[in-house]
Each structure stands twice: as C-alpha cells, then as structure tokens.
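Quick check before the chapter quiz. The format below is the same one you will see on the exam, so make sure you can read both the input and the output lines.
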Amino acid sequence: MERLRLLLLSEREKLKGYSTGKKLSYIAEYYWLHLLLVMGMLFFTVYFVYHAFFTIRENWFYITFVNSMQDAGEGSALQQGYIDYSGYDLSQKNVLFNSACYFDATRQGGTNNAYYQSFIATIEAGALDAAVMEKDNFIKVAESGRFQDLSAGEAAERFAFCRDRFVYCLPYDETYSETEIPVGIDLSDTALVTEYGLYEDGCVLGVSAYSRHPEAVVLFLSYLGID
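Here is the expected output.
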C-alpha cells in the first residue's frame, strides 16, 4: 500500500503542470491496461449483483427443442403463443424455450459435445421439464432413463389423454423393465411441424425424468391442440 501511495503522489506531481487534455492522453497511454481491468471488474461486479438479487430464477416451464430447423427459442412466436395461452405471470417466474441445442445420440460420438452435456445437466438438475426431438434421436436418449415412464405413477393418469400418441423404448436398465415402456408423445401432426416447421420428418416430446412442472407440459400439449 505504501508503494502505491508513493506512486500516486509521484504521478500527481508529474501531471501538475499538464492541461486536462494532456493529462487524459497520458493516463490513456500509460494506464490503459489498468483501466480495462478496473472496468472489467466493475462490469462483472454489477452483472453478478444484478443476476444474484434482481433476476427471476424460478421457472413456470422450461422446454428444449433439439436440432430444430427453425427458431423456437426466446422471443419466438411459439414461445409467445404459449405464454399468452398459459396466462403465466412472467414477473413471478420464467417461461424458457431453448432451440439452440444440437446433437445426434444415434451416431457414434454424436453426444460428445457441449450441447449434449448441457442438455443432460439441465435434466439431472431438475431444471428441464420437457424436450422435443426427432424420433430416433429421442429413443436413444430415452433408453438411458432420461424421460418419464408415462405408464407409471402419477404420469399414467396425467398423460392418459394422449395414450394413442405414445412412443415406446426398451430401457438399458433391464431391472426396471424387460419390455418396452411409453416414454414419449408423438407430435408429428401438430403445429410444431405443420405450422412452425421445426422438424421435417416429425418429432417426439419427452417429459424430463426430474420435471418439477409436469402440469406445464400438459398445458403445452393442450396449447398444441392435444386434449
């Protein structure tokens, strides 16, 4: 601290006879890196304080569209339509639509990317409520137990209304089931394909195994005209 004090005194004496413009020029020339560091620290301090105390972190609903051909993310017509339909108050919680996720679990090494790791992390953290993707890709992910068994527990009653749309898979874990179980809902004839063009060859929705808002998934299906 003493060295810093002496340095400041020395610089103050050096600049005493300079004009304001010359002072600014001198500081910019010799201390630009220090200024950048201070500005960077100030920016990140404000950023973290804002996000820690003023942003909404709870969700009404969070859905991801994997490998979608059109934008269905934040600010999209699809998202806004669901918000209007649901009546959720965004001043209380968020409605998150993510269409920036790309992986192919059917291909060798197709899950060795940051998108897939992030996708799995949001599921296991209980943040993601549902995911939509192509059927083959979906089944490969579902085999690992990432999506709910729609014939078990509360899910059996909650999603009984779309039983004729169920998509099945055989789990990796044979101790859970040695026969195929319903893990997805076919949405190939809904507006996701026919109106919004998110998928060319159809798509399937899965309810996250750790979804905290399954009722919001039901509302999304109703929004698409499935009831």
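If your answer matched, good. Confidence is low (pLDDT under 50) at residues 43-56.
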